[in-house]
Specification:
By secondary structure, the protein is of the alpha+beta class. 19% of the residues lie in helices and 23% in strands. The two termini are 36 Å apart.
């Protein structure tokens, strides 16, 4: 009974995403689009990007400004998974391991299983989604650009990232933040973002996939066409994984000119956390394991 209640709680987040898609808040696949399955989308999108001339900002960089929405499904599990009535089935988003799975060290694979048995998904408690999960948490993404910054604002919980694309210094490495610190640079038509200093207290999905505060994420944003961004996150954490690995998915533009972004404050009226605490679950403290085996 307890596990059933937990699944109902976490499934409510995924259900909100499905409902939003049904209400027109997500872009449907059009003829000529690359497949939605990330493993198939990945090579198709990169090939299309080579032939696409993106619109430009006044300073000459690819113009990605507008309203967007990350691909659904990964919030439930970034690995391939079956549906069970509470969770929709979905393909893996991991594109560079032989089995499409996160390459955990043995202790970390066991830790992932313990995560869902002991802890509350940080997203349920309205905490920050971290990087890269911020980009596929259900909700709207607003992108704004200046000559020296790339700005991402998410409708959920007032989450935002200001990514300097110049030479701005970072805070000291001892300072750990929910979204870390990001520094961007342009490589041709691709924005490459280097992310460090995350606090390791976020999950990658509701299935308990995780990293530690030692994680290093390199993001790549590349426009495939006027309404699609190929998003890639290279994730390296030698305390948790046996090797770096890569996640890929699509970010699609909302093209309705009448579209409005709704605030999703999350904390207002949120009651799931209190239910889970009473059932014996605790807030996720973050995991750091330094020895390997």
């Amino acid at each position: 009974m307890t596990s059933r209640i937990v699944w109902l709680v976490v499934a409510s987040v995924a259900a909100a995403s499905v409902l939003a898609e049904a209400q027109g808040r997500g872009a449907a696949t059009r003829p000529g689009d690359c497949p939605r399955d990330p493993a198939s989308f990945h090579p198709c999108a990169l090939a299309k990007a080579t032939a696409f001339a993106p619109p430009r900002t006044p300073d000459g960089q690819p113009d990605m400004q507008g309203y967007w929405r990350g691909q659904g499904g990964g919030v439930e599990n970034i690995e391939e998974h079956a549906g069970n009535g509470d969770v929709n089935a979905g393909p893996t988003w991991v594109v560079d391991t032989p089995d499409g799975k996160v390459p955990y060290q043995r202790w970390a694979f066991e830790q992932r299983k313990q995560n869902v048995e002991k802890y509350i998904d940080p997203n349920v408690a309205c905490l920050s989604s971290g990087v890269p999960r911020m980009l596929y948490t259900p909700g709207d993404i607003t992108i704004a650009q200046t000559k020296d910054a790339f700005v991402l604002q998410h409708s959920r919980s007032h989450t935002f990232r200001v990514i300097p694309t110049g030479s701005a210094p970072r805070v000291d490495a001892s300072v750990r933040l929910w979204l870390g610190t990001s520094r961007g640079r342009w490589e041709g038509n691709t924005l490459v973002v280097d992310v460090i200093n995350q606090n390791g207290k976020t999950w990658l999905d509701q299935a308990g996939n995780f990293f530690s505060e030692a994680v290093h994420v390199v993001e790549r944003f590349t426009m495939v066409d006027a309404n699609t961004i190929h998003y890639e996150a290279r994730i390296d954490d030698p305390t948790v994984y046996t090797r770096p690995w890569t996640m890929v998915f699509a970010i699609r533009r909302t093209t309705d000119p009448r579209y409005e972004v709704f605030e999703e404050a999350c904390h207002e009226g949120e009651q799931d956390t209190e239910v889970l605490l009473r059932l014996g679950y605790t807030l996720y403290p973050g995991i750091m394991r330094r020895d390997r085996f």
